[in-house]
Amino acid sequence: MYVGKNMKECKDSNNTKGLLFTERLTKLRLARGWTKKEISVRIGKSQQTVGKWENGTNAPKFKDLVKLVELFGVTSDYLLGLSDTPSKYAYPPFNDDKEEYVGEMFKQLDEGNQDATVSFIENRLDNQHISKEIREKDHRKQIVVGQGERPTKRVSIYARVDTQGFELSEVPVDCLDYPVPIPIHDIAFKVIGDFLQPSFFDDEVMFVMKDSILRTGDICIVQLNSQYHVMKVSQNRENGDFLLNSLNSNEAPITLSEKDDFSIFGKIVLM
User: Fold this and answer.
1) 3-state DSSP call for residue 99?
2) Beta-strand pair 187-191/160-161
């Protein structure tokens, strides 16, 4: 390694390695958008010292070189111009073209990791799309609370409940301002349509407390045969069996047995 006075001598004799050090140090700093002062603060040296390293009039001592290596995440050989490999994984330390940067890393992955990377990117795109929709709706739904207006609180919606049941989402599918007070709950759903009337109306929010215990009179979120449903719990007076009743009175109640594939997600919290 060329450190200390040796680096200065190499620079003075137009040594290519010394020139590479000054160029790479400057380029690494600029790629991260740091000033010489910011570098000096990060490694505990003066701004003038960093300037001398970059113009080649001085060179870092070994302990300072170690700090630079750790700061930029590159090898000492790369920083000193002894190697063109910036790190042990050979990733470029900077690249203004992000597509090219990602593409080069992607090529180094095996097929399994490439598939996993594609799935991750697709998931991030889905989340980005949902987040954008929520932000746009938030902007449209902003409520300026004035005199005589009821204050609201932001509520995240994790499922839209319709006649087909619903699927839980890991990220919010909607967001709205709901008048306070809001009941204590674990998760909130939004009703779409009039199929739950008169218990719940179109666009009404259902607040759910996660609970696995059945109680007569509760309105529960039930997972039955791999689908979620909103049902009211009752009990057969003759044999004590629990019954699940649709909020739509036209449907017959379901008698639960040990053979049924069901679970209780939670119960609706009513004001």
Assistant:
1) helix
2) parallel
CA distance 141 to 156: 13
Q: How far apart are CA 81 and CA 35, in angstroms?
A: 22
The mean pLDDT value for 63-92 works out to 77
Helix (H, G, I), strand (E, B) or coil at 219: strand
Give me the pLDDT at residue 104, please.
73
Q: Six-digit token pair at 88?
A: 């042990």
Interval 142-199: pLDDT, tens = 544 444 567 888 888 888 888 777 777 888 888 888 888 888 888 888 888 877 777 7
Q: How far apart are CA 78 and CA 25, in angstroms?
A: 10
Q: Which pTM does this prediction carry?
A: 0.42
Cβ burial of 112 (10 Å; 0-12, 13-18, 19+) is exposed
